[in-house]
Amino acid sequence: MEKMSRVTTALGGSVLTGRTMHCHLDAPANAISVCRDAAQVVVAGRSIFKIYAIEEEQFVEKLNLRVGRKPSLNLSCADVVWHQMDENLLATAATNGVVVTWNLGRPSRNKQDQLFTEHKRTVNKVCFHPTEAHVLLSGSQDGFMKCFDLRRKDSVSTFSGQSESVRDVQFSIRDYFTFASTFENGNVQLWDIRRPDRCERMFTAHNGPVFCCDWHPEDRGWLATGGRDKMVKVWDMTTHRAKEMHCVQTIASVARVKWRPECRHHLATCSMMVDHNIYVWDVRRPFVPAAMFEEHRDVTTGIAWRHPHDPSFLLSGSKDSSLCQHLFRDASQPVERANPEGLCYGLFGDLAFAAKESLVAAESGRKPYAGDRRHPIFFKRKLDPAEPFAGLASSALSVFEMEPGGGSMGWFVDTAERYALAGRPLAELCDHNAKVARELGRNQVAQTWTMLRIIYCSPGLVPSANLNHSMGKGSACGLPLMNSFNLKDMTPGLGSETRLDRSKGDTRSDTVLLDSSATLVTNEDNEETEGSDVPADYLLGDVEGEEDELYLLDPDHTHPEEPECVLPQEAFPLRHEIVDTPPGPEHLQDKADSPHVSGSEADTISLAPMDSSFSLLSVSHALYDSRLPPDFFSVLVRDMLHFYAEQGDVQMAVSVLIVLGDRVRKDIDEQTQEHWYTSYIDLLQRFRLWNVSNEVVKLSTSRAVSCLNQASTTLHVNCSHCKRPMSSRGWVCDRCHRCASMCAVCHHVVKGLFVWCQGCSHGGHLQHIMKWLEGSSHCPAGCGHLCEYS
Fold this sequence. Notes:
There is one protein chain. By secondary structure, the chain is an alpha+beta fold. The strands form twelve sheets. The protein has a four-stranded antiparallel beta sheet, with no helix packed on it. Pathway: Protein modification; protein ubiquitination.
């Protein structure tokens, strides 16, 4: 663990020398603090309170402040601070609500000086004034902050944050009378110690509790805050309203934040749970830490820079019962391992490509040809040579723009807003979505919706009235034989010639069925539709059947409910030799007087043989099942969904998934569905289609997606009068017994839509608040808060 690098720093008349080292403690540490000469460090916890000397090679225990035979809760420390003006003065915050000061100059073993017992709950933080030796500030879980004068036995001021608990308090280094406090409701307050009745400024800094804050040692108005939302934010407090300057996204809740000395943009953080490492960030590069210390094996609870003017040494305490000194030179640097290359498509089709500067420089001299608008635009941040990590992993960015109108995504937005995904029968949904796609010029998508309607909504049954052809087993449609024919009129010549196409092996595979009520359309050789004037009383092709499907036509085997097909009993006539010249039209002319046998007539007309050598046969059963099984098209639909997803049209894939539901859900694995849904929802949110996104989540067939809008649905509100949290039993406050939904403008109870400020809890009717804020930025209730409505 220990590394052999050694640094010697000259600070005025003193010299700091050391290396990376650690020592084992008797118990987990909750907080640490360094004395002003950087030679000693105090470690405090529930079961430890010791002072260690920081020597060149190791930590040496100097003093144990836990004295006495009986353990006292006053010694169970949540925080400790060492005064930067008096090297003998310390203060601790106890878990029982007691604030204790310690005088190391006392000759006795017990160094305890004063006890302040005014807090009712655990004290989370104590802080000495940077220039005033006798001023001590504390923040407690009871929601109050107290200012103590060490020359008196009681507090001189009490500050009420109107919140559940105070997590941190810090005096400003530049402003004598100003201190900042952070709260569990996400607010940060600025106070003047001369005015304990109200705060000077309050703003919501984080989404959740704010655990820590730290004033910048050089920039007067910069305040860094860290919270449970895993973010570190830097605020400029010199402006009229707190302005967020930088935001660093970490991977866990931020427990401590400390600015790095002599480095304006660097700060160190540690996490409250999960992550055990200490990170040093450059706030201008918020996604990759500049340095990382990995010595601890449990949560880091306290960090402190060894000297206010030395950026090389960092001290830390942890729950793994260890105290470490980290040498910045020995820190691992994740930025060195960062990939300098990246590729990303913009929302409207623009392409951004980042690559190493050396690679880009070699091609930066190329000249785009005339008319090329997609030439790369090179730009990069101006590097500061004083920063040790400024030149690492820097990239040049190339942006390729789309041609004007080429990257329009209007069709995506229109489709998302106009598609119908539920609430109607499946046929209507398919027809509506096909119409929308057709109006937007997406003909392939429209045709797909039409085919889905045919597949899942058309019954597949073709009534005999719609057919005037009988097809053999070789027919691609597989339709049943439905009509009866008069074989007497089929002269040998005509019968032989009509089988010419069949003898060539033509199976009429191009016959298609448009829908359940449409007519049957064949190929060009035999174009014939229902109602055609061309006679249809002849048979195309050979008909085969099983023995149990054929019966002699007698009264016992009549099937009036089914159409009949009349065949000769003996056998089919032998095929004649194919002739080169087909018969003339006189054969057809001779049959002009014969009645046309349509499908409807075949159901009612009984045909009898005109020759004794013929008898009647009847096909009593349909040769093929007229309804396709429900799963017949499942593979086809599944492949279609994968096709659209691979083409990038995840909108179509998700829309079909929702509309078809269980019909297709079982054929696509859960992980693929979840990937499609999350991709589509991300696109909708990037286009700010929040309502459509929520509807997709609600209608999702994926369990992992359908629960997305069930998280973070609890809304915590405070009473606008007493500032206390409201209970879940109603809109009347349990403490002040007043209605919380009073409009600050008209002073009437709001019975409809209510809008309020998260900073001061005042609000009212939406229209009233909007009209008020058009002319004033202050709260209409007169509390002085700068409310914001956007």
